[in-house]
Amino acid sequence: RANLGITVIEFPNNYAADPQDYLRKGLEARDILESESLINFTMSPHSPYTVSDKTFEQISVLANQLHLPIHLHIHETKTEIEESLKQYGKRPIERLDTLGLLSPSLMGVHAVHIDDIEIALLARQGCSVVHCPASNLKLASGFSPIGKLLRNKINVAIGTDGAASNNRLDMLAEIRLAALLAKAVDCHAETLPAHQALHMATLGGARALALEDQIGSIKIGKIADLTAIDLSNIETQPNYDVASQIVYSAGRENVTNVWVNGVRVLEDRNFKHPISNTISQKVSYWTTKIISNRKKNE
Question: Could you tell me which of 28, 47, 190 has the C-alpha nearest to residue 107?
């Protein structure tokens, strides 16, 4: 299962020439993959500092017309807030509110440097926040006030950000880090208990993606997206509370089986689909190519 972003930024690269080109290619991909039941799409403008007001207004219209969520990096660093004040006279969240982007459809990724007024605004507009603790640490961005967000009834999901700022892309490691950091930031050991951390990683993510009626929990009528975690080994003993053991002791090495849409894709820690071999081959190809290009440029 995947939720693919229709990425938009103002500047050109090898993929697209301008915002209209990004949108055209992204919407074309959506049309081509429309029949794929395991694939959904979001509008994914990169961030307020890489997208203009005009483009944001167009994205807002398209998101409403196509009923797509909006995925957007917000308030990740102090610098982006300072630059926004210089360029627009507003902090990014205030600017997004002026443009009509704040709504239950918005997933604000990071939300590190965020004040009480902005937290209240996100709560009032029903926005979700996607917390990426490892990325925030690796890039020295800071610490998101997760305890405050949760106390203000904001839906918080857990993400990893990209491989360049995370490396492991390990959701179990991310859940543990989120739970520990929230306690340290709040100076309170009861902030973000295990059950709430698991909720953020499951139903919190499903709700942010507008998929909570389909996935995120084990319930009659929902799709069977399931993960089996083996807690019987010595490193996860003794086991007094399953949720606590998953959050604080388990790792991805404990994942034994995974079902997507009722189909087992990981069986006894082995991928059942041959695509894993194809991915490994592509990784090897691009690793060699990148290293070669680096040597040419040295």
Answer: 47
d(CA 117, CA 280): 46
Residue 258: which H helix or E strand, with range? strand 255-260
Encode pLDDT of 224-248 as tens digits: 999 999 999 999 999 999 999 999 9
Taking a C-beta distance cutoff of 8 angstroms, is the pair 42, 68 a contact? yes
In this structure, the strands spanning 255-260 and 263-267 are antiparallel
Q: In this structure, how many other beta carbons lie within 10 angstroms of the beta carbon of residue 177? A: 19
Rounded Cα–Cα distance for residues 45 and 7 (Å): 5
- The pair of structure tokens assigned to 210 is 């507008």
Confirm if 212 and 218 have CB atoms less than 8 A apart. Answer: no
Distance CA 105, CA 71 (A): 9
User: Which secondary-structure segment (H or E) carries 166?
Assistant: none
Is the preceding peptide bond at 193 cis, omega within 30 degrees of 0?
no
Q: How far is CA 287 from the centre of its chain?
A: 25
Phi and psi at 273, nearest 5°, equal: -105, 135
- CA count, 13 A, side-chain hemisphere, 18: 4
DSSP secondary structure string for all residues of 96-163: HHHTT--STTEEEEE--S--HHHHHHHHHHT-EEEE-HHHHHHTT-----HHHHHHTT-EEEE----G
Do 216 and 203 touch, CB atoms closer than 8 A?
A: yes
Q: With contact defined as beta carbons under 8 Å apart, do 129 and 149 qualify?
A: yes
Per residue in 14-55, pLDDT (tens digit) is 999 999 999 999 999 999 999 999 999 999 999 999 999 999
